[in-house]
């Protein structure tokens, strides 16, 4: 699915889903899981997040609107904020513009993994151990295609190209990944969201989010909660 709008609840109910929001939600989620957060609850709206906090003052509120910290929240959406000191043993409730929306949309699947470049190898290993068909859901940008998510989907397609039958969209993502792989950082740096993040001071985030296989963590979203498999 190039965007969450392509996700069909009925068609994919027996699939495993891999949700990708490279810049930055699934990179931050992988970082939070790698740094020992107890659980992470993705929600669609600020109101839902605030309601959960009202019932449990110990939780950390996290996420962004227009890339920036939401007033009254503890953490924004920069992976640099999800340090062990901040998140270890914590419950995090996160709402972001596209990433958490994609996760909640894909929750009709059997099992949902959160993937970014940083944990691509770990997600690949998890998928190799299971039999389900897999749907990759790119979070995109407000219902539109996004370059970085499609390239990350293409990386996954590439890693399964010898063992799985790829759909036409997966083949297209794979071809794009092969074309861009040698110069991923400069090419993704040209994307609209990377440019926007740079304009609001998050250039380092873009660089971190494009590192590959730095975190050996598998965030799994089941029954409304993301927890880490290591
Ligand atoms: C999103 O979910 O739209 C993002 O992760 C936006 C961002 O914080 O860069």
Tag the structure with descriptive keywords:
230 residues, alpha/beta, putative 2-phosphosulfolactate phosphatase, three-stranded parallel β-sheet, 10 helices, 38% helix, 17% strand, globular, binds D-malate
- The CATH H-level superfamily is ComB-like
Individual helix count: 10
Compute the separation of the termini in Å: 26 Å
- Radius of gyration of CA atoms, rounded to a whole number: 16 Å
User: What is the helix fraction of residues, given as a range?
Assistant: 25-40%
| CATH topology grouping | putative 2-phosphosulfolactate phosphatase
Strand order of the largest sheet: 6-1-5-7-8
> What's the CATH C level?
Alpha Beta
Spans of 5+ residues with little confidence (pLDDT < 50)? none
Rounded mean pLDDT score: 96
Q: What is the structural class?
A: alpha/beta
The kinds of small molecule bound in this structure are: D-malate
Report the order of strands and helices: EHEHEHEHEHEHHHHHEE
The total count of strands amounts to 8
3D shape: globular
Query: What's the CATH architecture?
Result: Alpha-Beta Complex
GO molecular function: 2-phosphosulfolactate phosphatase activity
Organism: Sporomusa sphaeroides DSM 2875
Cofactor: Mg(2+)
EC number: 3.1.3.71
Quick rundown:
This protein has ten helices and eight strands.
